[in-house]
């Protein structure tokens, strides 16, 4: 963890240095304005540090908002500026060529003994046109600034708005025909935390209840804090409605606090949500039975609370179809080895902030949507909340109504 912190701090300092070079040094002359903008950028760095330290100390949401918003703006400033590096370099090269042409002295005619000759003495080179360089720097900064602010504004409206209802039908070849039409409301990565407020939970519960699902599956990363900090935000979950109950499995964020997931398991029990802790239950529907299993997140392995597929899936009737709740898509390989028909996962947020979806794809087998891995079908929801910046670009929040078929 110490190494990660050092790398993160070094990266943040490097990014702010790059932004200072492009947005301050190359857009101002030495003087009052450059000093003022330097202090503004230093202040934003301090806000970012305060956010990361403050949220881990349980400070109020007003501490988190400015830092997380600046983190998103900073990210897109860097992305856009990097994209602009090539056209900016071409423009700068053209500017240098123009300045070199202006420095070539014209021949100076002189009179020698009644005749005219050309002097070889060069005139002093003109000073490079600083106004042109400032224009190039300011144009680049204006494009990057406008693009970053517009993108983050759009992303905030997406992250803080209603989740999209994705309706998906999944055909399971071994599924008993009497189970056709069984419906799961799948939600993950709600991320109750300092930026969400109770309205976030109430909206998700209202939307799930409107789906009239048979089973509610909460696939990890429900919270970013302790019951003492966030218990009030989770209380609307008590109003969840479904025919056969609401079920929960841990995500990696449930292990981020010193208290671990245990206190949240008890809290959810009080709210009527059953946690599947490397175990399974039978869902009876129209005279047929489906096995619904759940495994702990891989993040619990370090504390001895990791996934146990043998415990969750061993000894079952292999003639019955099995649906597995597992927070991370990467767990699907083990699920396939145990003959699971369908795994429901989250964790990826669909990338949350493009182009992070490209990075997520390097670590997880599926970023979002339905896919087949081995003999197991895998559905990965983008999640209904956000982590860090309240921004979603290219990956709107999602609640899924998943219907089983043959």
Automatic annotation (TrEMBL):
InterPro entries: Calcineurin-like_PHP, Metallo-depent_PP-like, Metallophosphoesterase_sf. Residues 182-350 form the Calcineurin-like phosphoesterase domain. It holds the Pfam family Metallophos. The keyword Metal-binding applies. GO terms for molecular function: metal ion binding; UDP-2,3-diacylglucosamine hydrolase activity. GO terms for cellular component: membrane. GO terms for biological process: lipid A biosynthetic process. The chain crosses the membrane at residues 6-24, 36-55, 67-91. Gene3D superfamilies: 3.60.21.10. It comes from [Actinomadura] parvosata subsp. kistnae. Keywords: Hydrolase, Membrane, Metal-binding, Transmembrane, Transmembrane helix. This is Calcineurin-like phosphoesterase domain-containing protein.
């Amino acid at each position: 963890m110490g190494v990660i912190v050092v790398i993160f701090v070094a990266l943040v300092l490097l990014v702010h240095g790059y932004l200072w070079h492009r947005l301050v040094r190359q857009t101002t002359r030495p003087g009052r304005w450059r000093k003022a903008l330097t202090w503004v950028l230093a202040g934003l760095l301090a806000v970012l540090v305060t956010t990361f330290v403050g949220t881990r100390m349980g400070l109020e949401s007003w501490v988190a908002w400015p830092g997380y918003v600046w983190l998103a703006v900073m990210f897109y400033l860097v992305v856009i500026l990097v994209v602009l590096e090539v056209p900016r370099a071409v423009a700068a090269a053209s500017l240098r060529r123009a300045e070199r042409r202006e420095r070539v002295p014209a021949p100076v005619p002189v009179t020698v003994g009644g005749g005219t000759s050309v002097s070889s003495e060069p005139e002093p080179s003109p000073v490079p046109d600083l106004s042109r360089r400032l224009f190039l720097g300011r144009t680049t900064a204006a494009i990057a600034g406008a693009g970053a602010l517009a993108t983050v504004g759009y992303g905030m409206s997406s992250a803080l708005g209603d989740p999209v209802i994705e309706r998906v039908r999944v055909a399971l070849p071994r599924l008993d025909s009497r189970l056709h039409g069984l419906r799961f409301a799948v939600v993950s990565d709600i991320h109750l935390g300092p930026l969400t407020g109770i309205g976030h939970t109430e909206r998700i519960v209202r939307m799930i209840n409107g789906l009239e699902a048979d089973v509610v599956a909460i696939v990890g990363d429900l919270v970013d804090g302790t019951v003492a900090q966030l218990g009030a935000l989770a209380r609307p979950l008590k109003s969840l409605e479904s025919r056969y109950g609401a079920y929960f499995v841990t995500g990696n964020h449930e292990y981020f606090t010193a208290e671990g997931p245990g206190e949240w398991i008890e809290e959810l029990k009080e709210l009527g949500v059953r946690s599947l802790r490397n175990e399974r239950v039978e869902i009876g529907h129209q005279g047929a039975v489906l096995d619904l299993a759940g495994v702990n997140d891989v993040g619990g392995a370090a504390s001895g609370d990791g996934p146990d597929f043998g415990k969750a899936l061993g000894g079952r009737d292999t003639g019955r179809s099995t649906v597995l709740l597992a927070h991370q898509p990467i767990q699907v390989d083990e699920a396939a080895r145990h003959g699971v028909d369908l795994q429901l996962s989250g964790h990826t947020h669909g990338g949350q902030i493009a182009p992070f979806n490209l990075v997520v794809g390097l670590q997880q087998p599926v970023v979002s949507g339905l896919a087949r891995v081995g003999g197991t079908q895998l559905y990965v929801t983008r999640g209904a909340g956000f982590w860090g910046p309240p921004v979603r670009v290219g990956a709107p929040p999602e609640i899924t109504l998943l219907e089983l078929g043959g």
